[in-house]
Amino acid sequence: MPIPVRVVSVERLLFEGDAEFVLTRSLEGELGILPNHAPLLAALAPNELRIDKAGGGSEHIFVGGGFLEVLPDRVTVLADVAEHTSEINLERAEASRRAIADRLAGQVPDTERRSLEQELVMAEERLRLARIRRGGGG
Amino acid sequence: MPSLRDIRGRIRSIQNTRKITKAYQVVSATKLRRAQQAVQAARPYAEKMLEVLETTSERATEYKHPFLQRREGDRAVVILVTTDKGLCGALNVNSIRAANRYLQSNHLKARWVTIGKKGRDFLARFRQEIIADSSELGDSPSFAAILPAITVALQEFEKGRADTVLLVYERWISTLRQEPVVRTMLPIEIPKREDQPGVSAAPAADYLYEPDPEAVLDALLPRYVETQVFQAVLENKASEHSARMIAMQNATDAAGELIDSLTLFMNKVRQAMITTELMEIVSGAEALRSAED
């Protein structure tokens, strides 16, 4: 029995449809959701969300953090930043990672440092995913 | 009396102005539609966020996150959302006035976080203290672009340098009406769940929390404020384009009226000229004839 899944970012709705299985990573580790999972609310780490669709095939979405909510009848992902992994542009991802790393290397007020470090983790994960995708010929 | 050529020149220049205002009006109408779509697109996230927040805060009642604590004090940080460009009627003035009125009636001292050039420039002229600014976001503001400014406001509150954080923006009601809104962002007041008989699934959930309710709430609360501000920015965009569309329409109409009245005046001048010339010819001929007699 598939479960309806919705992935929304602050800016738009990224995915809506029935799924057999959802795989992601919370702050505590890997997290797989099958139908009939107990209600759950988890804070997510930057990672690639994998949704195995009910009709076959799977959806890969980069999530830069956010929340996963599991209810008896549906799953919702509230993503901070999200994009389909196939949409990530490798050159741009590399450039933005470098920009953040450069800023961190220089003088940064403490107030900004924390959020910049988070951004860096996010950018690195994003880049890693883009590389995998390219390497896999997809 | 102005010469015919001067009037013709003026009419031509007003015609050009009218072309420009008309084009701007059409552009604004298109941009308005896009801005409205952006507001719509951001809504599912905001709604879901609120729902999760309600459930989680019901669960973690003992936990007092700093964002939920009320403090006595008169130090406010105001997040002022305005437009980057002018030509949009009284939109920005209304927002700023609403903000000042609110501050006065609640006896608050403000420092400002500005999103939008118009508000920033206005405050700078009046030597107000601006602690952060995210302006020039373009027509489709991204969430990431406004984050730094919001973070500054949240930190001021967290570190105890401000007692409240306010948000001021222009709410979009209809194309013809926008309304300035002043809302309290911090301390957060989580709205009580409304008793809707139709919705039964919402409150039933008793989640497992990963890592735990407090940690989830820690992550949720700042996100909640950020989303609210982002929504406000998008809505302000829609308001901006509506207001500009109307302002440009008024300008186009006014130009049309001016052209009409100038054309009338021009015709009168021309007729007066013809009359004068005729008179001169007739009186000249008359003078010649009487000389011959």
Give an overview in words.
- The complex is a heterodimer of chains A (138) and B (293).
- With 138 residues, chain A is α+β, with helices and mostly antiparallel strands.
- Chain A contains two helices and nine strands, in the order βββββββββαα.
- Chain B has 293 residues and is an alpha/beta fold.
- In chain B, strand 2, helix 3 and strand 3 form a beta-alpha-beta unit.
- Helices cover 61% and strands 13% of the residues of chain B.
- Chain B is elongated and about 120 Å long.
- A five-stranded mixed beta sheet of chain B has the order 3-2-1-4-5, sandwiched between helices.
- Chains A and B meet through strand 1, strand 4, strand 7 and helix 2 of A and helix 1, helix 4, strand 6 and helix 6 of B.
Features:
heterodimer; A: 138 residues; alpha+beta; nine-stranded mixed sheet; 9 strands; B: 293 residues; 6 helices
Short description:
With 138 residues, chain A is an alpha+beta fold. Chain A has 2 helices and 9 strands, in the order E-E-E-E-E-E-E-E-E-H-H. In chain A, strands 1, 2, 3, 4, 5, 6, 7, 8 and 9 form a 9-stranded mixed beta sheet that branches.
